[in-house]
Structures are given as structure tokens and as C-alpha cells.
Design goal:
The complex is a heterodimer. Chain A is built from two helices and eight strands. Chain A is mostly beta strands. A five-stranded antiparallel β-sheet of chain A has the order 6-5-4-7-8, with no helix packed on it. In chain B, the strands form two sheets. In chain B, strands 2-1-3-4 form a four-stranded mixed β-sheet, with helices on both faces. In chain B, strands 5-8-7-6 form a four-stranded mixed β-sheet, sandwiched between helices. Classes of the chains: A mainly beta, B alpha/beta.
């Protein structure tokens, strides 16, 4: 592990070293990933049934609309934690982005009505709870794209969650 | 294992004209030296074998074939202890997991179930102690099964004191990693009646899946078992109250809890309190996972075969120290991938026909 563990994603003047499995670009998601280079979060939208689509597809899986019925919209970047788990055993997952420390994997519901997997970062793992307001932040990938992660929404105190929320 | 299952039924390989296997039914048939008229390589993770049962029953009913075998064998524990190279297998076809989930380092298969548990706790107030009771009741059964890997009694405190893995799941909320194998033989009812053992009948069977990866699951507190369970029980013409033995796939304690709700044994959200009084254990009103389950008996990766073999044993009265007295009706409810594909089989004795 030690030989491959990245710290800041770089190793001297060499090419950046991935600290996580970097995502391929799917057949229908090139615009999504291109926008991440500018720190813009896009959501594919079906103008026929007026709903967000995630993950991107060649047609709308809710109403069947295709082609001209689909467009890309800029998301607000704000969302709510729908479910969350702290991975307490990073060695078992093989990731190096957390430097061996526990980290949070969550499902976040965006304001646009779609749900995506992410990591919630920028706060102690114990602070993350279901129902927590979060906003997007970006982590560079080695090819110039960025991975959308989430942090506690600005202005939200660390203890603002409801009782009974889980971490 | 196939030969043992056929011998148990009083049949031989020459009687077999249908094969099921979750990886390659062609490879299986070639190895066995048979040329089947019915073949099924359905791979839906741990529920594959309930799907095989459903498909085989339909094929026999349609006159496609007479005798079908399904088999499963896996050695993940030996692979680990002997450091054999393991190739991770994923379903064929497009794999959006690589793009939308794998970058985030979720532990598989534990992470998705942890997410479901976190949501259930938030939404319904389910507690870790309630989940732990499922592991405790299941261990009570394992204590009575000499083949179970874990046979020492367990307490709720033991579960809560075990190391936290993917929160909120503790180590003892998680299934085992064992070697194991099983097989079943399905024949037409007419043929089965003349065979060596009293037959167990497929009274209903149904399947449903509503996602492959957890981030696409519509509601993490509701599985497609609501569909497969209702359809299988409707086909059998029974209600949950008529079930004597529930074999509900317990990859994790939360998995079994969701089955209790989605199969209609208790209302949605009440699985925690429902399980908390120990009714799932020996002497309880709903005997569940009487072999000791994936939590304490065995879990070689795709556990669904063992739901069927234990249900059959109970309905034949072969449960020995763990026999549920007078068991006539059993449900084998398989769960595949990450709460993705549920497949439910209702099984009964001759008396239930």
C-alpha cells in the first residue's frame, strides 16, 4: 500500500498518480465530464416529462423521450444526504484518497431531483448524517476532469442534524 | 453434489434433461455429459437459484423438460486462506458502476447495505440493537445445526461490540465468508411422487428487480421483494400468516429485516420492533433461517441455493435438532446483488396442495 498511496495526487514532476479509481466516460455522459473541467455540475434533463435523468442515457427512462427531448442543465450544486455510511476499513476497499482514514460514502439528492453517489468531505465523518444539507466541491482527476464531491452546505453548523440521524 | 442430490431423489444423470447454472449451464452440461432440452444460465447474484427454480418449474409445466438440476459450489474462504488469485466478476453488459460508483470507494458488498440501513434508521428509527437481534436469533438456530460454521451462542452486546465496518453495520451484522455447495432437483409433480423421498412442491414463484447498482435503487427502504413476494404468494394462494418457515436471504441483518417488511410479515418500517422480541428464533412465532443463515451457517458468495435446500429439509421433517414441528409451508426468498433482484418461491408439502 505504502508505495502507491498518494497524498496530494502528485509525485514530483511525474504524471499525477490516481488516488482512486478514475471514472470512464460513458457513451452518453461526455458533456457531464467536460463541464467538470470548469467546476460545473450538469444534469441531463428531459424536457418532455420535465425531470432530471441520472445517470445520463440516450433516452429518457421515465417517459421514453429521446433525441431533441433531452438537454443539459446546470445544477445548483446543492443537495441533501439521502443515505450515508462511513467506511471504517479503507484497507478493505483499496482506496488511497483518504490516506488510510475512514471516509464517508453517501447518496445525495440534488435539488434537481436526481440522486448520485459521492463522498462527503470537509467535516468529521461523525458529523455526516441523513438529511444533512450539502453542496458540491471538486477533486481533480489526473486527466483534467474533476470528480464531484460534497461538503456541508455553507452556513450549516456541524451539529444541525436531526436526532436519530445515522452516520 | 449433483449426484448426491439425484441420489437423494432416486434419480440418475440419465434422467436429467434440464440444467441451470449461474455461470455456464453449457459448461455444467458438458462436464456431466448430458445434452439438455432446457438450459438456464441466469445470473442474478444470490437470488440466481430461486430464479432457476421459477424458470425450471415453468419449463416443466410447459412440457419443455422433465427433470432439471441446479447446482452451486464456491470456495471463497479457501481462496482467501490459500491466497489463490481471485478474478472479480461482474455482470456483463454496460457497467455504469465504474463511472458513477467505483470512484467513491464504497466497500462491496457491504457498503450498499450500510446505506440502506442508514436510511431505514433515519426514516423509521430502527436501532442497531434491533438489527443485532436478528443475528442473535439466527445464531440460536446455528447452535442447533452441527454443520454451521458458528455454533457458540451470541448476545446483542456481542454484536454491538464487534468492530464497526461500513457504518452502521458491525462485523456481526455481516454474513460469513465460507466454502459451500448445494444442488436441487426439480421434476414434474407426477414423476416426483414415485421417487425416493416425499416431494416438496413449488406452489408459487416470482421474481422482480428494480436496479443493479445501489445508487439507482428507487427507495433504499423498499426492495423489489414487495413485488416478487406478493406475486409468489398470490400464485400459491397463501398469505404470510400461513408460512411455517421463512428462509429470507440474510447477507446482512438489514437484508433480512427488509424481507420481513416487504414480504408482508409486518408493516413497512416495523421490522426492527418485529424482530426485537426474538420471534425469529427457535420456538418463536416466525422461524427464520433455521439452518443458521448466511450470518452463522454458510455464505460462499451466492447463498440462495441454501435457502431452497433448508426449506426442503424442513418440509420433509429432516431438520433434526432444528426441525420446526409440523412445518408444511416454507418461503425461500432470494436477494441478489445489492438488494437488486428478489426472487421468491413458496414451497409446500403434499398436505398443502
Amino acid at each position: 500500500m505504502a508505495g502507491t498511496r498518494g497524498t496530494d495526487g502528485t509525485r514530483g514532476n511525474d504524471k499525477p498518480v490516481p488516488t482512486r479509481m478514475e471514472p470512464p466516460v460513458g457513451a452518453d455522459s461526455a458533456p457531464f465530464w467536460a463541464a467538470t473541467r470548469e467546476s460545473v455540475l450538469l444534469v441531463q434533463w428531459c424536457t418532455d416529462c420535465d425531470r432530471g435523468i441520472f445517470y445520463p442515457r440516450s433516452f429518457c427512462p421515465m417517459c421514453g423521450s429521446s433525441g431533441s427531448g433531452l438537454e443539459w442543465r446546470t445544477a445548483s450544486g446543492r443537495g441533501t444526504v439521502y443515505a450515508a455510511t462511513t467506511e471504517n476499513n479503507p484497507a478493505a476497499t483499496g482506496v488511497t484518497f483518504s490516506n488510510g482514514e475512514p471516509y464517508v460514502v453517501a447518496l445525495v439528492d440534488l435539488e434537481e431531483g436526481v440522486r448520485m453517489m459521492t463522498n462527503v468531505v470537509g467535516c468529521p465523518t461523525d458529523d455526516v448524517h441523513v438529511g444533512m444539507a450539502v453542496e458540491v466541491t471538486w477533486e481533480p482527476l489526473t486527466d483534467g476532469r474533476q470528480l464531484p464531491l460534497f461538503t456541508p452546505a455553507s452556513g450549516q453548523g456541524p451539529a444541525a442534524g436531526p436526532a436519530g440521524g445515522s452516520k | 453434489m449433483i449426484l448426491e442430490a439425484l441420489d437423494d431423489a432416486g434419480l440418475s444423470l440419465s434422467d436429467v434433461d434440464g440444467v441451470c447454472h449461474a455461470e455456464s449451464s453449457m459448461g455444467l452440461a458438458e462436464y456431466l455429459g448430458i445434452h439438455p432440452r432446457f438450459t438456464d444460465s441466469t445470473m442474478t447474484g444470490g437470488s440466481s437459484f430461486e430464479v432457476h427454480l421459477e424458470h425450471a418449474a415453468a419449463a416443466i409445466a410447459a412440457g419443455v423438460c422433465d427433470v432439471v438440476v441446479s447446482v452451486y459450489a464456491s470456495t471463497p474462504r479457501s481462496d482467501r486462506t490459500q491466497k489463490r488469485p481471485v478474478t472479480r466478476r461482474f455482470p456483463g453488459g454496460p457497467n455504469p458502476m465504474a463511472e458513477w460508483e467505483w470512484p467513491y470507494g464504497m466497500r462491496m458488498p457491504m457498503g450498499p447495505y450500510a446505506l440502506a440501513a442508514s436510511r431505514h434508521m433515519h426514516q423509521y428509527g430502527t436501532t442497531s440493537a434491533q438489527l443485532a437481534q436478528i443475528a442473535v436469533s439466527t445464531r440460536e438456530w446455528a447452535v442447533r445445526n452441527p454443520r454451521a460454521r458458528y455454533q457458540t451462542p451470541l448476545t446483542i452486546d456481542d454484536v454491538l461490540a464487534s468492530p464497526m465496518q461500513s457504518s452502521p453495520l458491525h462485523l456481526l451484522d455481516c454474513c460469513l465468508v465460507t466454502d459451500g455447495a448445494g444442488a436441487f432437483v426439480l421434476a414434474s409433480a407426477g414423476r416426483a411422487r414415485s421417487l425416493r423421498k416425499p416431494p416438496v412442491y413449488v406452489l408459487g414463484a416470482a421474481t422482480c428487480h428494480d436496479h443493479m447498482m445501489i445508487s439507482q435503487m428507487p427507495d433504499l427502504t423498499v426492495t423489489p421483494g414487495t413485488v416478487s413476494g406478493a406475486n409468489a404468494m398470490a400464485m400459491a394462494g397463501i398469505s404470510p400468516a400461513e408460512v411455517d418457515v421463512l428462509m429470507g436471504y440474510d447477507s446482512f441483518t438489514i437484508t433480512a429485516l427488509l424481507h420481513l417488511e416487504d414480504l408482508g410479515f409486518c408493516p413497512k418500517g416495523e421490522g426492527g420492533p418485529f424482530a426485537a422480541d426474538g420471534k425469529l428464533g427457535p420456538g418463536g412465532s416466525l422461524p427464520m433461517n433455521t439452518n443458521g443463515g448466511g450470518l452463522s451457517f454458510t455464505h460462499p458468495g451466492m447463498y440462495g441455493m441454501f435457502l431452497i435446500t433448508e426449506a426442503v429439509r424442513q418440509l420433509r421433517g429432516e431438520g433434526e435438532a432444528r426441525q420446526v414441528p409440523g412445518a408444511q409451508m416454507a418461503v425461500a426468498h432470494g436477494s441478489g446483488m445489492v438488494l437488486s433482484c428478489m426472487s421468491t418461491a413458496v414451497l409446500g408439502t403434499e398436505a398443502t396442495l
